[in-house]
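Reopening this one. Same input as before:
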Amino acid sequence: MPPDTEAIAEQVFTALADPTRRAILATLAQAGPATATDLAARLPITRQAVAKHLALLAEAGLVTAEPGERRRVRYRLRSTPMRVAQQFLAALARDWDTPLDALKNHLDQPAREPATVLDTTQRRDRR
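Same output, byte for byte:
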């Protein structure tokens, strides 16, 4: 896995770790591009807090700022970093699937009959 993939995935996961940032992304996904002021009106946080979260989301590549009317900046979702994070998770899953399937198959096999151990008194009687 290329190191840049891991770095992008790490930024995405860091951004998604915060519930407010997830709410901002969900709002943009549902309503489309919006300004920080628009998002603050829909969410229970200030415009300044929204702007700080948008800066982190932009740093992670999850949103892009576009100039709008009257010098207002509109934020739009970008799906590319999310796809990179999905590919990162899929690669991890592939790395784990084979060993975990082998372990499951091993554990699901019927138990073998334990080897019979003769105690020492039985051995002496055989002589």
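So the earlier flakiness isn't reproducible anymore. For the record, The radius of gyration is 28 Å.
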